[in-house]
Amino acid sequence: MKVVILGCGRVGSTLARSLDREGHTVTVIDRNQQQFQRLGADFRGQTVRGTGIDEDILRQAGIEGADVFVAVTNGDNTSIMASQIAREVFEVPHVITRVYDPVREELYRSLGLDTVSPTTTMSGIIANKITSGGGG
Question: Model confidence at 112, in pLDDT bands (50, 70, 90)?
Fold first, then answer.
């Protein structure tokens, strides 16, 4: 499977390394060249320096043949905009977007984006631990 990941922070780099180890074709886009160090020396995928809302950068990353596009930047606006471009302009079959703001997540999910909110996920896990009496 060919995967393009926007954002090489903790989540993006961990996901990229994992998919690369599984034999997938992975390209990571990030504005900061130093972020690619998180991938490690054994990463076999491609890296592209730039912003994920730039169609030329997305093309350079191989989005036109991608099976999956994942946006995990630090900013909801960038992730959402890049995901919409991937879905609408490049017709990537599966687009996944991390959205920190739970209200935005709900809105964009209703518009057809496949969203993940760490805010909602973590608060749910913590609430479950509280109500179930579970410790660590």
Answer: confident
